[in-house]
Amino acid sequence: MSWHILGVGALGSLWATRLARAGVPVRIILRSSQRLADYQRAGGLTLSEVGESSLHAIPAELPEANTSIQRLLVACKAYDAEAAIARLAPRLANNCEILLLQNGLGSQQAIAERWPQARCIFVSSTEGAYREGPLQVVFAGRGQNWLGDPNGGSAPVWLDELDRAGIPQIWSTDIVARLWRKLALNCAINPLTVLHDCRNGDLLQYREQLAALCQELGTLLEANGQAPAATDLQDEVLRVIEATAANYSSMYQDVRLGRRTEIAYLLGHACRSADALGVAVPLLHDLHDRLRKRLSLRGLPTD
Ligand code: NAP
């Protein structure tokens, strides 16, 4: 059975090339005839890791192709994922599986509700990749992938294909808690790096602000039934800041490069969820407002 990969950017290319290299059947789905022609001209996807580059001529197609899709890996940004799937929805087999690699929360739930015939598997990834050019990806940081089905059920048999491809994986029985925890860390760190225009490590001078944000985030996690994800949140925020002190956060980099952020699925999701549950989070709302103003000043979408 073939994997179909939708969204052939940084992470999608990283998964596609590793699967193809291991001999696992995989096809990539490009958004337009123009992109398909560019791909055919390039001769495939280029993966660079530890200074070595390799070209992978993976079969490619358009969303409108007419073969059925049994297993779909969606590696678009959170704000593109649902619309991208909608274009190929007629091809989804009744009992298909959709793996969702998006950061934050909200897009996965919307997709799971819209296509109830699919088994949606949420993925939380700490691997790092970036695009060096069109159809060229650099594997920048080793990490882990946690996969899980929020509705429970057993681990899929194809996890061994990921092992064979060298894609690290752990089957998680609490994937939503894991995504909430990652979202909370992101909300505490990333917006402040944009607002203070600084590296992660510079946030150590705003410890009180961080502590107050973590307090609100902890309350929000608990209200969402995710109390374990709130445990020692502030300690982990400080640990992450120290361990990544010299780095610029992903949101900071998006803003600097004039790219749309995934704010609606991170801080935006936290604020919407608090409002829906009637939890007061004035600091998170204030942060959200200030961040949206900053994005607007830079001419970037605020959602
Ligand atoms: P990316 O490099 O921007 O790739 C997204 C890809 O989706 C682009 O190639 C884009 O095509 C494609 N796309 C968008 N709409 C499409 C459509 N309708 N049909 C077909 N393709 C479509 O993003 P990324 O960095 O890989 O991130 C993907 C997700 O993984 C995000 O939620 C991100 O937060 C998460 N994540 C990324 C990393 C990382 O290191 N990169 C790590 C952890 C998690 P175009 O090129 O044509 O625009």
UniProtKB/TrEMBL annotation:
Keywords: NADP, Oxidoreductase, Pantothenate biosynthesis. It is an enzyme of class 1 (oxidoreductase). GO terms for cellular component: cytoplasm. Pathway: Cofactor biosynthesis; (R)-pantothenate biosynthesis; (R)-pantoate from 3-methyl-2-oxobutanoate: step 2/2. Its EC number is 1.1.1.169. InterPro entries: 6-PGluconate_DH-like_C_sf, 6PGD_dom2, ApbA, Ketopantoate_reductase, KPA_reductase, KPR_N, NAD(P)-bd_dom_sf. It comes from the Bacteria. The keyword Secreted does not apply. One of its GO terms (molecular function) is NADP binding. One of its GO terms (biological process) is pantothenate biosynthetic process. Residues 174-292 form the Ketopantoate reductase C-terminal domain. It holds the Pfam family ApbA. Residues 3-151 form the Ketopantoate reductase N-terminal domain. It catalyses: (R)-pantoate + NADP(+) = 2-dehydropantoate + NADPH + H(+). Catalyzes the NADPH-dependent reduction of ketopantoate into pantoic acid. Belongs to the ketopantoate reductase family. This is 2-dehydropantoate 2-reductase.
